[in-house]
Amino acid sequence: MRIQFRLNGRPVAVDVPPGRRLLDLLREDLGLIGTKEGCGEGECGACTVVVDGKPRLACLTAAVQVEGKDVLTIEGLSEAGQLDPLQEAFIETAGVQCGFCTPGLVMAAYALLRENPRPTRDEVRAYLSGNLCRCTGYAQVVEAVLRAAEKACPR
Amino acid sequence: MARVKAPVEEAEQVVGKAAPRLDAEAKVRGQARYADDLSFPGMLYGKAIRSDRPHARILRLDLSQVAAHPKVACVVTPKDIPGENVVPIIYRDMPLLANGVVRYVGEPIALLAAETREAAVEAAALAQVAYEDLPAVFDPLEATRPGAPQVAVPAAAEGGNVFNHMVIRKGDVERGFAEADVVVAGEYRVGYQEHAYLEPQGVIAVPEDSGITVYGTLQCPFYVQNAVAAVMGFPLAKVRIVQTATGGGFGGKEDVPSHLAAMAAVLAWKAGRPVKLVLPRDEDIATTSKRHPGLVRYRTGAKRDGTLTAVEVEFYYNAGAYQTLSSAVLWRGLIHAAGPYRIPHVKVDGYSVATNTVPCGAFRGFGSPQVIFAHESQMDELARELGMDPLVLRHKNALRVGDETATGQRLTESVGLPEAIGRARELSHWDELQDEVAAFNAQERFRRRGLGASTVMYGVGMGAKAPLLDKAGAYLKLEADGSVTLAVGTTEMGQGAQTVLAQIAAEGLGVPLASVQVAPVDTSRVPDSGPTVASRTTTVQGMAVLDAAEKLRARIVGAAMEMLGCPKVVPGDGRFHDARDPTRSVSLAEIARWMWAHNWDMAASGWAEARPVDWDAKTGLGNAYFVYAYACHIAEVEVDLLTGETRVTRFWAVHDSGKIVNPETARGQVIGGIAQGIGYALMEELPAEGGRILYPTFTAYHIPTAMDMPDEFVVEFVEASYSGGPFGAKGLGEVPLMASHAAVANAISAATGTRLRAYPATPERVLDLIGRGA
Ligand code: FES
Ligand code: FES
Hints:
The structure holds two protein chains of two kinds. Chain A is of the alpha+beta class. Chain A contains six helices and five strands. In chain A, strands 2-1-5-3-4 form a five-stranded mixed sheet. The longest helix of chain A has 14 residues, at 102-115. In chain A, helix 3 packs across helix 6 (139-152). Chain B folds into three domains: 24-32 and 471-609, Aldehyde oxidase/xanthine dehydrogenase, molybdopterin binding domain (Aldehyde Oxidoreductase, domain 4), CATH 3.30.365.10; 35-134 and 195-287, Aldehyde oxidase/xanthine dehydrogenase, a/b hammerhead (Aldehyde Oxidoreductase, domain 3); 294-464 and 615-773, 2-Layer Sandwich (Aldehyde Oxidoreductase, domain 4), CATH 3.30.365. Helix content of chain B is 29%, strand content 25%. In chain B, strand 14 (308-320), helix 9 and strand 15 form a beta-alpha-beta unit. Classes of the chains: A alpha+beta, B alpha+beta. At the A-B interface, helix 3, helix 4, helix 5 and helix 6 of A face helix 1 and helix 17 of B. The structure holds FE2/S2 (inorganic) cluster (FES) (2 copies). Residues 37-40, 42-47, 57, 59 of chain A line the site of one FE2/S2 (inorganic) cluster (FES).
């Protein structure tokens, strides 16, 4: 099946079998390995991408579902080489350890800040509660998101 | 001559600073390459065909339909293994592929490689296996009874199913209990804990250059090299292991990658093509190692004033079907069983027992969290009996310099425990906090808060169980432009080792951190550096890096002196200055260029070996570890009396790990370890029945989310310097997990007014506790 959508700001057209997961389309067919598979069953959030501004789990999304949509992956966040403030903040606060959860967390946080540019600490924690991280204990991750929000729209 | 102020050399410039992680940028960009991110031309997908019986003889293995699948490239049974059918770990009892008998559900029987991942899964389901079931046993106590089915391979067991029985006999416990005014006793139980590293296990074996290279997510490349060489029948030099970016390990990637890599290597060799073997999450949870379930019995005696007189411990760990790391796990549990306290009379008996279950292995804390739950519960029970403040009781008995540990080891330096307890007390405002909690409880009807403390010690490094592994090599190369390449043999798995080691290199060389690059770990670059475990990397690998740095620095300084024509130079601002006239200086880049142009040797290798340890297996006495790290944690929890739900609301953690090389990554280690401890105490539960893990998914196995974490964290370090570590550093990685769960457990007991004696404290268990306590 031929589908067309925007990927990281650019139009793409690909052939996919109807059952193919968005995750496999991204990672295996398009070589965008930044999006990770941690569980394949919608529980860990490592595969989070942003579709039309909303966080989506690429392991539970059929590729054909993004027909006509706007898909943003971790690679698209810093496409001109310039890091997104969120990425910078994750580096500054040491919100990254093994890094396997990081692309998913960053994308979820990106969607959060679009919806709610100045979230409270508890709002950040609640929004990110679908993204598992086994390394950090989340404190420095939450700090990173708050710091990026502060930078983008200082009070 | 006028005194010129030379750039400071005394104070450390890079060590002790919160430098950003070297690997962070690639990781936030999604550019770091983990095992499943790598592909090779012609690559196949491997899959193991696994036993679905806990104990059975294999009567017939029919793989004809598997082999006939159009997308299957090759099939492997034990007779296709070119070398030995063994995964050598500490013992050699575990075959790569079951040898006629399967001993646990999930044990690999045969292998296949197919053109696609999907085809591999499809084909594996076509295997026909006929079994004759054998009697099986799943409980370690039952497995030790006479007449129990024999699970352990006899050559790997001390007797029957007891893999190992280890003891400590210090003083005379009966006398110690006779001298006690108060004795408390209890039995404590814990189940599995699953590592739940976010990146599942994965390797890719690539046949090349008349040997084999394996890329993978792993902690211990030299273990993997050894295992692959054994199954291939190759000399070690024909086996190269390259670590990919590794998405968490926590011990789960200590021994398991050896098994996977050996499977992938045999497949790749037979197929003549690269083979990727990545475990789906359910297969990973169901078939790879976990924290040992344990049953721990304690008796603790003390004088009226709180002075400990005796401790007696008996504990059983369910090892699973094969030895893997159980003997080492048991040993660490044994040495840590009595806690960080001064106790004249100690008797400990630890048993690791074979059952028809998945082999358990290494998990952060390595056999110590189970006994820590028990000893820290005992301390609180004792405090209650004595009417003493639990922190005061701990402080009173805490080890100090000059004291003897439970194994009779005299501590000669670097014991920051009393200070850590004192600091935790101050930071938490312990006394006011008690009042606050009491006031809350007085006014709430259906919620109770509780405070809990814990103190732990941690023997850094391999200790006297495996001193031959406590070494490390490093290689430092000054490039012609002044940048520096560092190669080490221990791995980055998220803990921040790479950054810390680069900081040590930069400090040792007197160069800015930004000039140091760390190469991917590759067994062909440095000598066998032992495993990346036991919180030993900063200390032992750090000393090797420092050794290399000092050698290379001597040459850099020599070159700078020749260039400047002066007898002494000092570093500063990335340059080397004439000590007599600091305005005259050369940059590292200029020095490197000069060395290159004068054909100087621009590389140095470093080596380090841990300080000697000794231990007597008969008495259990000796200098078990070269140094210990310590911690004191305090947790506040809130229990909902109606639902049984528990939340950890606030947390204070004070650690002595000697000099902290990077405070920011160290803080991350502490908070991350606390999270895993909260999970262990509150929610992580992996039920099994008949040797089968019932629900091997993240849907059923809950680890903490951001919502489960305390609202407030205070983390601090007291740095009791260790003379055998780089700049005074000891180990840290495992300690936070070890201390945290016990503080949470004690807080729950305080909140509910009863005693939690089994993990995890799920709402049902807490309701049950409240029912009994009320
Ligand atoms: S891989 Fe999609 S949620 Fe885990
Ligand atoms: S950093 Fe390792 S899982 Fe989040």
